[in-house]
Write a structure and sequence with these properties.
Layout lengths: L2 H18 L5 E7 L2 E7 L4 H6 L3 H21 L3 H7 L3 E9 L4 E8 L9
Protein name: Na+-translocating membrane potential-generating system MpsC domain-containing protein
Pfam families: MpsC
C-alpha cells in the first residue's frame, strides 16, 4: 500500500469512528482510476455479532451496514478525503459479509486519482 493509500485508509477509519462510534480494525485501500477501493475487516461490535445470529437481525444489520453507511457519507461530506485526493466525492458502493466480518467500500470521485508508487 502506498503512503497515499495508507492516509486514505486512516481517513476512512477516523470518519467511521466519528460518525458510527467504531471503525474497522483493518483497512487496505487500492486506487483504480477514479475509485478508492477499501477492503475492511473487523467491522462488527460484540452486540452486532450477537444480533447477526438471528435471521431477522442479520437482515437489519446488513441494511444498517450498507444503506445507512452510504447515507452517512451523503449527509456528512468526506471533506478530508476530497482534500487529500484533490477530487470531489460522488458516490459510495458498500457490501459486507456478516459471517466473515469483512466488507468492501468503493468510493467514487469526480476525477482519476493520481498514482504514486511510494
Amino acid at each position: 500500500m502506498t503512503k497515499l493509500e495508507a492516509e486514505f485508509s486512516n481517513l476512512v477509519k477516523a470518519f467511521r469512528k466519528k460518525h458510527m462510534g467504531k471503525g474497522p480494525r483493518e483497512i487496505r485501500t487500492t486506487f483504480c482510476r477514479n475509485w478508492a477501493i477499501c477492503e475492511m475487516e473487523g467491522h462488527l461490535s460484540p452486540v452486532e455479532k450477537f444480533i447477526a445470529t438471528a435471521t431477522d437481525g442479520k437482515q437489519a444489520l446488513r441494511t444498517a451496514r450498507t444503506e445507512m453507511v452510504k447515507e452517512m457519507y451523503r449527509t456528512h461530506r468526506p471533506v478530508e478525503m476530497e482534500e487529500l485526493l484533490g477530487a470531489r466525492f460522488v458516490d459510495l458502493f458498500v457490501d459486507i459479509d456478516l459471517d466473515q466480518d469483512i466488507g468492501m467500500s468503493i468510493f467514487v470521485f469526480d476525477r482519476d486519482i493520481p498514482h504514486k508508487t511510494d
